[in-house]
Amino acid sequence: MKNVAVLGSTGSIGKQTLEVAAANPDKLKIKVLAAHVNDVLLEEQIEQFCPDIAVLTDEKAAQKLKSRYSGKTKILAGQEGLLEAVTYDGVDTVLASMVGYAGLLPTLEAIKHGKNIALANKETLVAAGSIVMEAVKKYGVSLTPVDSEHSAIFQSLQGGRQNEVKRLIITASGGPFLGKTKEELADVTLEQCLKHPNWSMGKKITVDSSTLANKGLEVIEAHWLFDMPYDKIDVVVHPQSIVHSMVEFNDGSVIAQMGLPDMRLPIQYAFSYPERYENAFGQLDFVKAGTLTFLAPDTEAFPALKIAVECGRQGGTLPCAFNAANEEAVYAFLDGKIKYTDIIKTIEHVVAGHRNILQPVLADIENTDAAARTAAREFLSRL
Predict the structure, then answer these.
(1) In the chain, count of helices (H) and strands (E)?
(2) pLDDT attached to residue 278
(3) Do residues 159 and 255 make contact, with C-beta atoms less than 8 angstroms apart?
(4) Which of 172, 181, 258, 344 is deepest in the core (most CB within 10 A)?
């Protein structure tokens, strides 16, 4: 039995994690639920899973919940409450699915307290990969990927030795704008952007998928997770989202992990590894899946991928700056304040003006995140 804390329980990954827990009640016990502001849904989750602790990082939302809740679950508030929850002795595994940079500090705190991590928050490694992986090693915990692509690579790597790997091949769906030119992207709408052809995800990651920024973040994440140089990590567009990623070995063999485009599968594997729980979420039908196609990514129309990878290659605090600029721009787009093409303009501006620190400590990462967000907001205010 694993005793689990779910960070981001009211988000897309968090809700699917709870579906996995409900399907495996003899294997997974939910001990902590943490969310940002959705007190109504969190209360429903508390009623279903009866955790020891529940947290809302928005203090007003936490107060609303406290005022009407009279059960046994301890209700905590704010960042302080979140850090208390992730270090709770009753938890051995933390599912980290908070959106964006906000996931970094609680994930690091959980690692320092000996918790194994199921990582769905790629920004944690993008912003501070060297710091996080050093902490994983220092405190002797496991860090298992939840992202479908990284879970696929993790599984495929079991077919050979690390020194036999020729390259990692990360697949991308191409998102809703696959095949569009740079000119055609100028007038796309938020509604169009949020209609992902295959995956059901939160709004922020759906926008990232459409710009291919998400794929750039995944390349950086793969670099840290699998200790793989950037020249051994490639991206291919696979519109059907059946092959979730691949590993090519030095003898020419390629091992791919395939399955339905359903995040519950990699979530479940992150908990079950090295075993597999019985699948309760459907099976892939190869006949219905039909033809599988692969294309090169169009980095002229979607330059965020190329910029992110170059930031990763340069290292230091540059990936953190990229991530902060992207987050600010995407949220401005979601709020209807800017055009779709202004997202990449913001990223380019912030990255170009960043003074890179090559061997950062945590304070450097925190300062970079704050400075990059300020630069992004100033740029966005002029658009």
Answers:
(1) 16, 11
(2) 86
(3) yes
(4) 172
In a domain, residue 278? The reply is no
Please indicate, yes or no, whether residues 126 and 99 belong to a single structural domain of this protein: yes
Co-location of 80 and 223 in the same domain: no
Size of the chain in residues: 383
**Which residues of the chain fall short of a pLDDT of 70?**
200
Task: Return the ∠ at Cα 36 (arms to 91 and 368), rounded to 5°.
Answer: 95
- Per-residue confidence (pLDDT) for residue 49, from 0 to 100: 97
Are 112 and 190 found together in one domain? Answer: no
Spatial neighbors of 343 by CB under 8 A, at least 6 apart, are: 207, 211, 213, 304, 326, 329, 330, 333
Q: Any idea what the Cα angle at residue 106 is, between residues 204 and 372, rounded to 5°?
A: 55
User: Is 43 a domain residue?
Assistant: yes
Same domain, 172 and 114: no
Q: Write the single-letter amino acid at 205.
A: I
In terms of domains, do 129 and 190 share one?
no
Give the integer Cα–Cα distance in Å for 242 and 252: 21
Which domain covers residue 368, as residue numbers?
315-383
Asked if the structure places residue 80 within a domain, the reply is: yes
**337/333 Cα distance (integer angstroms):** 6
Q: What confidence tens digit (pLDDT) does each residue in 46-69 have?
A: 999 999 999 999 999 999 999 998
Q: In this predicted structure, what is the pLDDT of residue 197?
A: 75
Q: Which of 104, 126, 146 is the last residue of a domain?
A: 146
Q: Cα(367)–Cα(127) distance, rounded to whole angstroms?
A: 11
- Encode pLDDT of 324-342 as tens digits: 999 999 999 999 999 999 9
